[in-house]
Known about the structure:
Elements: E1 3-7, E2 14-18, H1 25-43, H2 50-71, H3 82-87, H4 89-105, H5 107-111, H6 128-162
Antiparallel strand pairs: 1-2
Helix pairs in contact: 1-2
Bound molecules: zinc ion (ZN).
Amino acid sequence: MSSEQCYCAFCKHQRRIYTKRHITPINMLLSVLAAFAIMMFLWQEFDPRVLIVFAFCLMVAEMFITIRWRVTLPCPHCGFDPVLYMRNPKKACEKVNTTIDLRRHQASRWLKGKNPMQNLTPRSRPSVKEELKLREASRVAEEMLSRQLSEEQKPTLMNSDSH
Ligand SMILES: [Zn+2]
């Protein structure tokens, strides 16, 4: 089969992708038949130009299959694109963000397809109290460090003065 079920690497929803990226012998056979049909239609007899028509049919088939594969690859639910992720992870992140933002702001989009946030584990954030404590601790540490530095600098300055 040219398509199969898979799970999105980001939102973990099941979806269908086309696994076929290039033409198969069956597509070649169909291209031969199409070329012969076009030949009979245009010239009503055998014509060597059928080879050009055949090459054109092959090109169209290959283009169609490659484009179909590429277009159906991004997840329809969250917009995650594995090929883009391999090339440029930052851009892939931006794409997922814009897709999720779009779905957030358009009520009608929630109704179609699956919720991309459904299977995501929430990122744990420190509470406000914990954050204040952390900030206070880092402030105290900074003060202590600056005091230490100024104390260390004084004797060296005096030493350099005495010489
Ligand atoms: Zn997804």
